[in-house]
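Entry type: protein chain
Record version: 2
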Amino acid sequence: MSVFAASLALLVSGWLTGQGAPQSDSFRFAILGDRTGEAATGVFEQAWRETAAEDPAFVVSVGDSIQGGDDATARAQWDEVERIRAPYRRLPWYPVAGNHDIRSAASEKLFRQYTGHPTHYGFDYRQAHFTMLDNSRSDELSAEELAFLEADLKAHAAQPVKFVFSHRPSWLVSVAVRNPDFALHRLARQFGVQYVVAGHVHQMLRLDLEGVTYLSMPSSGGHLRASGAYRDGWFFGRAVVRVNAKQIAVEIDELKPPHGEGRMTAAGDWGMLGLLERK
């Protein structure tokens, strides 16, 4: 056998076995909203079932995994989260810290223990980078968090796709009034962040500012507020994000019965006041 033929055979064998095959730049992941904040029974469990059926590469949660409030009962609450997640451990889980999750040094220790993550961190998946921030104990991002964000984005500047997650939408007022002069947005613009995602308010909202899309996730268990109307963004749901090279498509999926009607929309169908009117 010639050297060329041998090399070709080895390459074909690698393709057939998955060894040496080029890594795809297309993948999908899921985002879950808040579980707690006067949690509705059974909703988070259903959200995980429906998410697992999509077989995403991994799952991100925007915080408030437990009700918290009492360090004496927090461990039992985290044990309940572990029970819910047990059937889906094949799916890597990347949560951010919510205000119900962390209120003290003891509750922070439990968050680290049960999630396997620090309170802020970053990770890569193929061509995408994800920065997970901690604003669990403040409505604003602290100087420490902003310094971490800048360092993390700088260290992964070569990644063409970037997401930033936090629990509280510290950006909400500034983006709503079209004010680009705040630190998070300046860093997002500088390093090419495409999406900034938060939870906390339990309402589906989308706002765009200078090429950065800001999303507030619908609830995945925490009680629905205000009108409780789907068109206003009050529903139980989750997101499926499809990444193809540098292109990102965010699908917003309402839960199916009994906790929803299974309506599906694109993130672009939503605005800062809820579902956009179709013309």
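Comment: The mean pLDDT is 92.
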